[in-house]
């Protein structure tokens, strides 16, 4: 277990161990020596800044990077004015890539002024060979480039860079390896993401994730339980189980296990009060899972169930493997079993071949399901995916018009759906001081809605009963009971 390991006791004059995670601890110890030399020379420790782009998986990966950096002795910086800047990238849509190139362009003059500065790039975008080629050609000032499969090797890559002084590139096409027991630095003391599986086997035709995150691999349930037990002992009471498709958890294990089965085991963990998970693929959402959700005291009343499109034709072209009717039946079944559940979704507008009629079907699903919120995306062509070469790509002005209409519909319905809790008293897990008002705190309901109410820092991490006074679209203003 990492917090029992004494890095200073590792003999770095020896050859590095070959087994993991011991090998990485060796390299963390090596980097720590470098950090100490830096400190002696400069009278301060070096600062590192990690910026996450994209999804919760990446956010969790960044916590692992921060954990490793902390072990090395780096101080955490909150902006790019740092000695080491790491971008953990996303490539799900083209604009994610554009943003990274933009930020890199801004870093260039800084690096020129401070040549000791290091720049690291990792994550999904690095798994694309064209990206790495472009970086090698036009962004020579980047120091370390690695991908999604070898994040655990971060310390080794930093050590290699420090020793060689040259650009280090290490990208793996895929892996079946999961390295346990590495450090991580959580953003919140009271809640945490937990990877339960990596990769995706679904190959939705628009999506680049299966190409950059590799094949589906589930973590051993014992390792997951052990991690959550340690977290609860450390003050965590809410976990978010993470996977591209959590409903197919366990299929690839030596002893197969269902996601519902895993949830039942996690439910038993003492000290744990809330369990969330994402993302669920509708085609794999089982009756067993609905039953477990219905009977659970800890699983939150929220399900993120991406529909992507309401048109059965488009769903077939997207390779989603369900029809509009099957999706609607599923949501009805869930609502019947868990009436107070909040449903959220992802929708793509402008998939190749989407007609006005197809789009109307999407609006119809939105009106029927009445989501609490929906993430709406403009289709983005990802090179290498089947959809990128499909005919009838939809013109941008048509997409824009549909997107605006969809957003209006989604927002109007969400405001109504969210407001149904007005006047009730519900338990809120307080997360932070409110952004807009330092005398207020912000927390979440079980159904994931945000609530702001009067309170101080001492409430962070606490569960407070709050009367939901007023719904303001996507959040509530509340009043704590008995405080
Ligand atoms: N274009 C637009 N949106 C996409 N998503 C995935 N790939 C694309 C793409 N090529 C969306 C899906 C998915 C969410 C994480 O991102 O809606 O559920
Ligand atoms: Fe992409 Fe589909 Fe896998 Fe989700 S399930 S990551 S949309 S391929």
Shape: globular
Unreliable segments of 5+ consecutive residues: none
Structural class: alpha/beta
Percent of residues in helices comes to 25-40%
Q: Strand order within the widest sheet? A: 2-1-3-4-5-6
Give Rg in angstroms. 23 Å
Alpha-carbon distance between the termini? 39 Å
Q: What about the largest sheet?
A: 6 strands, parallel
The number of helices is 13
How much of the sequence lies in strands comes to 15-25%
Bound molecules: 5'-deoxyadenosine, iron/sulfur cluster
Q: How many strands in all?
A: 19
| Average residue-wise pLDDT | 95
Plain-language structure description:
The chain is an alpha/beta fold and about 475 residues long. The protein is about 35% helix and about 20% strand. The protein has helices at about 20-40, 55-70, 95-115, 130-140, 155-165, 210-215, 220-235, 260-265, 285-295, 310-315, 325-335, 355-370, 395-420, and strands at about 45-50, 75, 85-90, 120-125, 145, 170, 190-195, 195-200, 215-220, 240, 275-280, 300-305, 340-350, 375-380, 425-435, 440-445, 450-455, 465-470, 475-480. The strands form five sheets. Strands 2-1-3-4-5-6 form a six-stranded parallel sheet, sandwiched between helices. A five-stranded mixed β-barrel has the order 15-16-17-19-18. Helix 1 (about 20-40) packs across helix 2, helix 1 packs across helix 5 (about 155-165) and helix 8 (about 260-265) packs parallel to helix 9 (about 285-295). It is globular, with a radius of gyration of 23 Å. It starts with about 20 loop residues before the first helix and ends with a strand. The site of iron/sulfur cluster (SF4) has 10 residues, from helix 6. Iron/sulfur cluster (SF4) binds near residues 200, 207 and 210.
């Amino acid at each position: 277990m990492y917090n029992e390991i004494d890095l200073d006791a590792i003999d770095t004059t020896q050859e590095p161990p070959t087994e993991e995670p011991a090998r990485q601890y060796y390299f963390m110890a090596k980097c720590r020596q470098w950090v100490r030399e830096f400190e002696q020379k400069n009278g301060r420790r070096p600062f590192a800044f990690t910026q996450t782009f994209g999804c919760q998986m990446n956010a969790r990966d960044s916590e692992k990077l921060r954990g490793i950096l902390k072990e090395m002795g780096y101080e955490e910086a909150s902006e790019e004015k740092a000695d080491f800047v790491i971008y953990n990238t996303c490539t799900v849509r083209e604009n994610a890539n554009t943003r990274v190139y933009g930020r890199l362009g801004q870093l260039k003059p800084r690096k020129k002024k401070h040549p000791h500065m290091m720049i690291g790039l990792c994550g999904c975008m690095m798994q694309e060979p064209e990206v790495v080629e472009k970086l090698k050609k036009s962004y020579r000032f980047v120091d370390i480039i690695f991908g999604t499969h070898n994040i655990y090797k971060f310390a080794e890559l930093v050590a290699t860079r420090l020793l060689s002084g040259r650009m280090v590139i290490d990208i793996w096409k895929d892996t079946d390896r999961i390295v346990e027991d590495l450090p991580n630095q959580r953003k919140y003391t009271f809640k945490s993401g937990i990877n339960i599986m990596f990769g995706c086997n679904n190959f939705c035709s628009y999506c680049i994730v299966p190409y950059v995150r590799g094949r589906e691999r589930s973590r051993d349930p014992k390792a997951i339980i052990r991690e959550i037990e340690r977290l609860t002992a450390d003050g965590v009471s809410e976990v978010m189980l993470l996977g591209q498709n959590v409903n197919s958890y366990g299929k690839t294990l030596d002893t197969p296990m269902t996601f519902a089965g895993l949830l039942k085991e996690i439910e038993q963990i003492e000290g744990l009060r809330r369990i969330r998970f994402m993302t669920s693929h509708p085609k794999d959402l089982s009756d067993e899972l609905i039953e477990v959700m219905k009977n659970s005291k800890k699983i939150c009343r929220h399900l993120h169930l991406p529909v992507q499109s309401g048109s059965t034709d488009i769903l077939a072209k997207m390779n989603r493997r369900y029809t509009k009717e099957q999706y609607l039946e599923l949501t009805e079944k869930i609502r019947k079993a868990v009436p107070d559940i909040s449903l959220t979704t992802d929708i793509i507008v402008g998939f190749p071949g989407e007609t006005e009629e197809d789009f109307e079907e999407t609006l119809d699903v939105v009106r029927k399901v009445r989501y609490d919120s929906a993430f709406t995306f403009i289709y983005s062509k990802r090179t290498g995916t089947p959809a990128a070469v499909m005919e009838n790509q939809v013109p941008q002005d048509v997409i824009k018009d549909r997107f605006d209409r969809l957003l209006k519909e989604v927002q109007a319905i969400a405001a109504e759906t969210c407001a149904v809790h007005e006047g009730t008293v519900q338990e809120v897990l307080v997360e932070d001081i409110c952004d807009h008002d330092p005398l207020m705190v912000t927390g979440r309901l079980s159904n994931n809605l945000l609530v702001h109410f009067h309170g101080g820092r001492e409430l962070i991490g606490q569960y407070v009963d709050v009367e939901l006074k007023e719904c303001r679209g996507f959040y509530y203003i509340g009043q704590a009971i008995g405080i």
